[in-house]
Amino acid sequence: MTPTRLQLQRWQALTSEQQQSVLALHIPPEQIEFAGTMAQAVAVGEGASPDEVAGLAVLQADVPVGFVVLCRGSRLPEWAPTGAVALRAMRIDSREQGKGHGKHALALVETWLGEHWPVCPLLALCVDDQNLAARRAYEVAGFTEYTEPKAGRIGLVRYLAKPLKVAARS
Question: pLDDT by residue (tens digit) across 58-75?
């Protein structure tokens, strides 16, 4: 059986029902410890310029199964290389994990960046050293460490990045 294709949709373009579904995504306590709550992820983009922050719902048949937050420009976190896009949050509902949605969502993020922020050469993220599942997923997706790990809030934090194809300017 072929899984339903996923798509990304900006937070602002979601229906009220879809927004409520995003906020209700089930994130296990051990993942909240690493990455925060859904409300915190959504709040990153509220009031921010859509040119600098994109909150993107991961939809399967128009139903949210995850959420991604991308930041650049003045909203780029201090740990990210200049000119990069930072993947600030990536959440997949716990009931949907293990189905390849995270891997597919990462590929969709790269496509989205090529279409909407095509001048960004690098996608960067940070991940807690103890978050082994996320670290493996990012490694499989082609991310590599770009600097030494540093002490974080709950242990070592690793800093990963992946080069992006930059669209040719016309």
Answer: 999 999 999 999 999 999
